[in-house]
Each structure stands twice: as structure tokens, then as C-alpha cells.
Amino acid sequence: MWFGCPGAADNEHGRFPLYPGESVWIEYAYTVGDNKWGNWFQRAVRLPTEQLEVQLAFPAALDPVVWGTETSMTAEASPLRTPPVRSDDGELRQFTWITTTPALHARYRLEWWFRARTERDTDQGEFR
Questions:
Q1: Range of 7's domain?
Q2: Are residues 47 and 84 in the same domain?
Q3: Could you tell me if 19 and 55 lie in one domain?
Q4: In a structure prediction context, what are the per-residue pLDDT tens digits for the chain, which is 128 residues long?
């Protein structure tokens, strides 16, 4: 994400100021187990942002599909303007979605479904 607002940012080397007119690239990643997360990811845009990119990686054996919606303070949810792009990398199926200059207060939600998972598997909270 790109932030062009006054404030401070930090990384593993410490905090540093961010003055008006300056920008910073913030990148982070994390892994969440199936027993802690549902079938969605949501991000709200609260600061001026030049680009927002979301990458999701799932076991290819689950045959995942991904879609998404955009919501604003004044509009109902509508399909993303550009769909997530799928790529297969060995045992992983990855989906990447990018938007440039998202509106302030827009909310983006990506959802997924595992076509190879039975209803019984979903109740047990773990990948099979």
C-alpha cells in the first residue's frame, strides 16, 4: 500500500517520519490456518492508497475458486471491477487481485470456495 499522508512508518530498523508529499511502500504477509479463518478476506481503504494488491494461495488439491466485491459508504456491494487472476504453481493455486487508486473508505472483500471439499470436511476445521 502507498500512503501519502503525514505520520510515521516503521520497519525492522526502527521508526522514521513520513512528511507531506512523501510516500512509503508497505508490504506484509501472514498465514492463517483453516481452523482460524472463514472463507473470506476483507480490506478497507482508510488512507490515500496508490495500489492495493491481495494474493491468496491455497492447496491446488482443494480446487479453489475466488471472487470478490467492492462496497463503499454510499453503494451496495458490487462485483470487483477486475477479477482475481489465477496461477498454478505446483501444489499451490494462487489468486492475485490488484486495484490502483482505490477510493477512500472503499471496502474490498475476496471470498473463496473449495470445490473438492465436501460439506463434512468444512465442519472439521482443517484442510484434508
A1: 1-30
A2: yes
A3: no
A4: 334 344 556 667 777 777 888 877 777 787 887 777 789 999 999 888 889 999 999 999 999 999 999 999 888 999 999 999 999 999 999 999 999 999 999 999 999 999 998 665 555 444 43
Residue 102 counted as domain residue: yes
| DSSP code string of 32-43 | --GGG--SEEEE
Q: Answer yes or no: is 13 within a domain.
A: yes
Which cell goes with 7?
Answer: 505520520
Per-residue burial over 87-113, b if 16 or more Cβ lie within 10 Å, else e, is eeeeeebbbebebeebeeebbbbbebe
Question: Is residue 124 in a domain?
Answer: no
- Cα(127)–Cα(72) distance, rounded to whole angstroms? 33
